[in-house]
């Protein structure tokens, strides 16, 4: 299972994803929301380097298990695209004593903790396995996880690889090839890393590299990452901490450390000017305008201001829409383009964070016959006003309050707790980083938001026109030079 496209990514059930929410279109209560209380947890590091996080909670007789490995698509060198995701599937197939790990867990009452019913996922930075088991089956789950960590990729032979490769091919067909503009996310990200061999890629990239991959190739690349000193194990649920510690030590303590390859830094190729690209699709009926900037990552302070900025431009979070119908009328861009000028049917904005970098993206779907060039000009005028003008605290205050409330309610599930703790540990060195980020969100000022806009939303950006095939007249500002990134059509047009 790969990660979702940017407009829905970084774990829909993880608290650390909730701080890109919406401002309320009406005033909220004058009192300030209380600080977010960190989850209670116990942290330990085994002698082999495995980090263990235990959140004891006896409110229901289940335990959520999260095993996170720091292996993602950014670790893939040129020619190895898709290997991290492929190895996720191969690891999921079993271990020396368990033919199919998922089937064993299902047989003892286990279930997925994901809204998509998946049991594992790979993104730019991590591969993780997640599920919930009855409390009395925790030992079985830990035994199964340790069994595949002790002997990773047990079933990675060329014959078995064929079937796994076909599963990945079907997944790509459904989630990329079968979607209109399905490769837009990958091609957008690529524009920031021209000439680089290692950088964040779509974990479910084109199949060409995987079709040339052997089982030996998969093992050579992935095995160094599937070691305890490159992993975080998080448990949340009905157990006694002392008992869980003994079980973890029993099943994981004897697994040997490994030598983990250095993870590449995520630094974009400096853009000296705007980069304009075009993507065509034969299935498309309407065009889409996308503007993207490289921004702050998971643990960087600017990320919080960028989340607030996105909410002020185009509040689209479905949870807030459910609470407050008409919330999208509050966003500066959505109000102007959808309601006032009626040039667009939808507008979205968000800062999509990776471990050490992010993409701030604005996407507009025009109404019929609405010129994308005109829409681009209006978007730029709104951004110019926001960077140069005054942001009232009343515009930001509802966002601060709403993110705290929704963020806390997100942690009601055991799966979200385990995932949040593991992600905070892996990417910020702090399992409860979310609570500190929530506190900083409450302190955000209009000046912080304006400064983030000035720093990141510059002319060094990517402008992508997504158009029906052959409809080059729909490109935004077609007289400006652009690159056609459509597969088999890639060319620079002066």
CATH topology of the largest domain: the name is Cytochrome Bc1 Complex, Chain A, domain 1
> What is the radius of gyration?
23 Å
CATH superfamily of the largest domain: Metalloenzyme, LuxS/M16 peptidase-like
In the CATH scheme, the class of the largest domain would be Alpha Beta
Annotation field: number of helices: 16
Q: What is the number of beta strands? A: 13
Q: How can the largest sheet be summarized?
A: 7 strands, mixed
Summarize the amount of helix as a percent range: 25-40%
Q: Beta fraction of the residues?
A: 15-25%
What strand line-up does the widest sheet have?
9-10-8-11-7-12-13
Please tell me the overall pLDDT: 89
Structural class, from helix and strand content?
A: alpha+beta
N to C succession of SSEs = EEEHHEEHHHHHEHEEHHHEEHHHHHEEE
- CATH architectural group of the largest domain: 2-Layer Sandwich
Poorly predicted segments = 2-31
* Total number of distinct structural domains: 2
Shape descriptor: globular
Distance between the termini: 40 Å
């Amino acid at each position: 299972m790969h990660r979702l496209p940017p407009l829905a990514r970084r774990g829909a059930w993880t608290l650390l994803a909730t701080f890109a929410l919406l401002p309320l279109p009406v005033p909220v209560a004058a009192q300030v929301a209380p600080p977010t209380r960190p989850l209670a947890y116990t942290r330990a590091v085994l002698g082999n380097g495995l980090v263990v996080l235990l959140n004891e909670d006896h409110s229901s007789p289940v335990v959520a298990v999260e095993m996170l490995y720091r292996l993602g698509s950014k670790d893939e060198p040129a020619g190895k695209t898709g290997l991290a995701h492929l190895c996720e599937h191969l690891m999921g197939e079993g271990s020396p004593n368990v033919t199919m790990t998922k089937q064993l867990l299902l047989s003892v009452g286990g279930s997925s903790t994901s809204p998509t019913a998946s049991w594992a996922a790979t993104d730019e930075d991590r591969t993780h396995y997640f599920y919930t088991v009855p409390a009395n089956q925790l030992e079985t789950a830990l035994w199964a996880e340790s069994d595949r960590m002790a002997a990773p990729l047990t079933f990675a032979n060329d014959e078995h690889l064929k079937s796994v490769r076909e599963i990945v091919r079907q997944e790509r067909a459904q989630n990329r090839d079968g979607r209109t503009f399905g490769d837009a996310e990958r091609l957008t990200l690529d524009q920031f890393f021209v000439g680089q061999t290692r950088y964040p890629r779509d974990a479910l990239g084109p199949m060409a590299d995987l079709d040339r991959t052997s089982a030996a190739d998969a093992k050579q690349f992935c095995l160094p990452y599937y070691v305890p000193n490159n992993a975080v194990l998080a448990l949340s649920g009905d157990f006694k901490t002392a008992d869980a510690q003994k079980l973890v030590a029993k099943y994981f303590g004897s697994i040997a450390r490994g030598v983990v390859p250095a993870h590449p830094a995520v630094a974009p190729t400096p853009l000296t000017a705007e980069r304009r690209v075009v993507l065509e699709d034969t299935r498309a009926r309407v065009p889409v305008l996308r503007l993207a900037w490289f921004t702050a990552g998971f643990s960087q302070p600017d990320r919080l201001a960028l989340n607030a900025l996105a909410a002020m431009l185009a509040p689209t979070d479905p949870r807030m829409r459910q609470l407050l119908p008409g919330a999208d009328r509050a966003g500066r861009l959505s109000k102007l383009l959808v309601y006032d000028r009626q040039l667009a049917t939808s507008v979205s904005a968000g800062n999509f964070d990776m471990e050490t970098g992010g993409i701030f993206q604005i996407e507009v779907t025009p109404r019929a016959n609405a010129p994308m060039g005109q829409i681009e000009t209006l978007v730029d005028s709104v951004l110019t006003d926001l960077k140069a003008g005054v942001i009232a605290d009343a515009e930001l205050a509802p966002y601060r309050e709403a993110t705290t409330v929704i963020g806390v309610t997100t942690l009601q599930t055991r799966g979200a707790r385990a995932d949040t703790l593991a992600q905070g540990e892996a990417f910020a060195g702090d399992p409860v980083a979310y609570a500190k980020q929530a506190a900083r969100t409450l302190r955000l000022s209009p000046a912080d938001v304006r400064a983030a806009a000035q720093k990141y939303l510059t002319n060094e950006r990517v402008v992508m026109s997504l158009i029906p095939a052959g409809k080059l007249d729909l490109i935004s500002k077609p007289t400006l030079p652009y690159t056609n990134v459509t597969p088999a059509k890639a060319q620079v047009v002066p």
